[in-house]
Amino acid sequence: MQTRILAIDENSLNLSKQIILHGGAVAFPTETVYGLGANAFDTNAVENVFKIKGRPNDNPLIVHVHKNYDISTLVSYVPEYSKKLAKAYLPGPLTMVYKSCGKVSGAVSCGLDTLAIRIPSHEGAQKFLKHVNLPIAAPSANISKHVSPVTAEHVFSDLNGRIEVILDGGKCEGGIESTVLDCTGDIPVILRSGLITREMIAKIAGECGEYVLKDGEKARSPGMKYKHYSPDCKTMLFNFDERDKAVEEYSKFNNDGISAYILCDNKTAKLINVEKILNLGETECEIASNLYFKLREGEKKAQLIIAIAPENQDGVMVGVMNRLTKACK
């Protein structure tokens, strides 16, 4: 199969729609990462997405819809706090989990009675979703466990020969996957941290819980289980206050002829002052936006990536640390 990267225009959208209607998968941009989308009503199409990625079949998918799609046709109940959150933050990097009314394929939620729905804000994603006018089940458009893709070229690197079309929407600005919020109870509960923080949710909903997956329990959201976001090289992770130790390891490996790079934010880069740096930037939004991009860059340059966690780990950095910790397992 020939894989093509196409600009988002009438021709590529028409082609993408035909691929989706015939049970295929299309890679498309969002504001967070690129998604690998298939018709959520078509079980064979959804199962094919799992096969393309090599994704475990107990790791549920998120359904993406355009901003005018009536989600009440897919779920049984939308609580008031969810409506307020949608008004405040959607379209945007927030996924909300509801009780499903059973219209989409059971393969999407891996047998759970819930459905995760997201309305991405990326203009290209909205064009694609409006054109197909179907709920699109989509995980990240990469090989399972590898670093999530934030450019069309990243998708091509992982999925060349496995899919026909990658819709090119440029580099994703958000950089880490959406916040996933359980909206099936009396209060919203975070299942996966992201760019919409717990504080932002509580400000609108009044309160917000945070869920921790228990041993042996079935994942209720993507990103709760398994190794994720891992570059194709060795990794190490140090806390901010262990940065001197990280520099010692960096020097030792490079002196031994093993190419090691340090992945860190700009503040830490200035403090440690070493040559081989993968600089994530200054602000929390820059750090989130650059995390996967720099991990992908690092795996091409380095035999070892030594990550140093940022000093501040509040807000958006909760989501960054979730990804960084899983990447360096």
Question: Can you put this structure into words, describing what you see?
Answer:
The chain is an alpha/beta fold and 329 residues long. The protein contains 10 helices and 15 strands. The strands form 3 sheets. It has a 9-stranded mixed sheet with strand order 2-3-7-4-6-5-9-10-11, sandwiched between helices. The chain has a 4-stranded parallel sheet with strand order 12-15-13-14, with helices on both faces. Helix 1 (10-21) crosses helix 4 (123-132) and helix 9 packs parallel to helix 10 (316-327). The longest helix has 18 residues, at 284-301. The protein starts with a strand and ends with a helix. The mean pLDDT is 95.
Pick out its properties.
33% helix; 15 strands; 329 residues; alpha/beta; globular; four-stranded parallel sheet
